[in-house]
Write a structure and sequence with these properties.
The protein has 188 residues and is mostly beta strands. It has a single domain, classed as Jelly Rolls. The protein contains two helices and 13 strands; from the N terminus they run ββββαβββββββββα. It has a six-stranded antiparallel beta sheet, with no helix packed on it. Strands 9-8-11-6-13 form a five-stranded antiparallel beta sheet, with no helix packed on it.
């Protein structure tokens, strides 16, 4: 029997998972497996990684998000922090979900080496807790500019408690709409 190098943990929101990485350490340093399609096969359910993206954010307190792609271009994201620390937040936008419009937040860091799995139908964003933080994204769909969407990071309906004073937000992210009172979610 092969020992798993990636351990999968559930969260309070169905479909959102945390992947714990097992480290191999010796006098030379550290080795760890960041991704394995065999070990994550149940999560991927036949989907393939289509893009790998890297985000580097310079200032602590900066927020990126909350972003998503509309169906039929909705994407699963697997996100890992390679350097620094971030407060990573996902919001359930799935129509009929028992956790519709609930959010889940977790600290991702170079130190804890956790990876969050964000299913299709979720908005994603993060706040940088340490300057120079780098995130690696593995996505199951190609970026489609005409399918991109967003929700304002400060939406009172979500009431996300960002951990630091907000220092930077792009013009695009600042202009994302608040959720309308008749928003019912996405059918995937």
């Amino acid at each position: 029997m092969t020992r798993r190098k990636l351990e999968i943990h559930t969260t309070p929101i169905s479909g959102v998972l945390l992947v714990e990485t097992h480290l191999y350490q010796d006098e030379r340093g550290i080795f760890y497996r960041g991704f394995c399609d065999r070990e994550l096969d149940d999560i991927l359910s036949g989907k393939k990684i289509r893009q790998v993206n890297l985000s580097i954010t310079h200032r602590a307190g900066a927020i990126r998000g909350l972003h998503f792609q509309y169906p039929p271009h909705a994407e699963m994201k697997m996100i890992r922090c390679l350097q620094g620390r971030v407060w990573d937040v996902v919001v359930d936008l799935r129509k009929g979900s028992p956790t519709f419009l609930r959010w889940y937040g977790v600290e991702l860091s170079a130190e804890n080496k956790l990876m969050i799995v964000v299913p299709e139908g979720f908005a994603h964003g993060f706040q940088v807790l340490e300057a120079g933080s780098e995130l690696l994204y593995l996505t199951t769909a190609h970026y489609e500019p005409k399918s991109e969407g967003g929700i304002r990071y400060s939406d009172p309906k979500l009431n996300i408690p960002w951990l630091l004073k907000v220092t930077d937000v792009s013009d695009r992210d600042s202009s994302h709409p608040f959720l309308s009172k008749d928003f019912r979610g996405f059918v995937l």
